[in-house]
Description:
Layout: E1 8-14, H1 21-30, E2 43-52, E3 60-69, E4 88-94, H2 98-102, H3 104-112, H4 114-118, H5 132-138, E5 142-147, H6 164-169, E6 172-175, H7 189-207, E7 208-209, E8 215-216
Parallel strand pairs: 1-3, 1-4, 4-5, 5-6
Antiparallel strand pairs: 2-3, 7-8
Amino acid sequence: xxxxxxxxxRILVVGDSGVGKSSLVQLVCHSQPVLNPGWTIGASVxxxxxxxxxxxxxxxxxxxxxxxxxxxxxxxxxxxxxxxPVHGIILVHDLxxxxxxxxxxxxxxxxxxxxxxxxxxxxxxxxxxxxPEQFAGSHIPVLVIxxxxxxxxxxxxxxxxISSIAEECGADEINLDCxxxxxxxxxxxxxxxxxxxxxxxxxxxxxxRDAGGSTQVCADYPYSTNW
Length: 227
């Protein structure tokens, strides 16, 4: 199958401004670090070809689109236009900045409540807007990633413990240094977690089943995205 014919999934990469989302996406999609990334205004998109269920008879290649959403508060009321559709969410925080971690609840709430913005009732999303029961009903796969691991000192290692939001979402958690390609090297624990997350995203997008056991394919993109 030609690469242009591959089916796609759309993954939102969200988190506070400056936590390293662009560096992370560069590392994930191109297996090499970018040392001086620019600030993202609006959103930028990178693409990775992922082999679903690699090494099994069910293996199949898909495009994974990573939508790097700018985290500036100046665009908080307008970035909802990038939130539909969403098949997976990567929540990114800076391991040296506890506030960026606590703000992940607000980011998840913002994405889950995107319909409020679409209806013209945009508002500031506080940490209380994330409802675990609401998330449970969405079934959207989530991955939590902590960046700047290299900047942690021995007195701050406790921040690396699994976060409550990861536990609530049933999400894997990765901590890494985006300037080191080896942190996502093939076969590494981090790479396995990322691959497992992408498999979950594809599973939900194309192979979700209803209560009667029938396969339910989610509605396709409301616009054309050609790569």
